[in-house]
Amino acid sequence: MKVHFYPADTPKATAGRDALLARLADTPLEEADVVVACGGDGLMLRALHDSIRHRKPVFGMNRGSVGFLLNEYREEKLMERLARAQTVKINPLHMRAKSADGKTHAALAINEVSLLRQTHQTAKLRITVDGVVRLDELNCDGIIAATPAGSTAYNLSAHGPIIPLGAGIMALTPLSPFRPRRWRGALLPLSSRIRLDILDADKRPVAAVADFTEVRDVECVEIWRDKAVEISLLFDPEMNLAERILKEQFMP
Description:
six-stranded antiparallel sheet; Tumour Suppressor Smad4; 17% helix; single chain; 252 residues; Rossmann fold; alpha+beta; 17 strands; 2 domains
């Protein structure tokens, strides 16, 4: 098995990569069978986004802080771990945002698509799901559409639900809802198509973010699961992604 190392630009990550290179050769990406990402969750997200282009599975090794999408970093027996690793295949969310200048912007999100207010004033949003208006007006700081893989990230910090990997649903979670104050979000089938219209956009500008791609001054945003794009993550069998998400629900 040929390995291409993909480190974060941090001392801890590059030191980890160098220690692994003392044991294994680094293969050019085009010739590699697997990408080994060394860093934190941010670096892992970038490695996964890059994998959409080169179609290589990614095995993450945590040299960051949280490391939820990564395996434990160990220098020994990496080839054995790769040989027995379990593959998790996920589809990202597709974001299509129309900005105030009339341009249309597209991006993919492995974790979540977020809409965020740009000024001191709250955002006003209309929520449509599969062509049906479900909420005429939501006054809030923003809203998150999260995949199961991303439900333990920003979504969880916003008090959204943790979603088991095979549940076939995604979370729509408001950020600091002001009106209706008691609306705490929704769970939607992954097949859903969400449209978010920004009301009073000139006075209350909103930015849309798909993972790390940001579009400012948006007027409307559409979100759906992109089944044409498949991403492969590799995990140690004893702590695969499905187990991590399940375990997270019982954390104190």
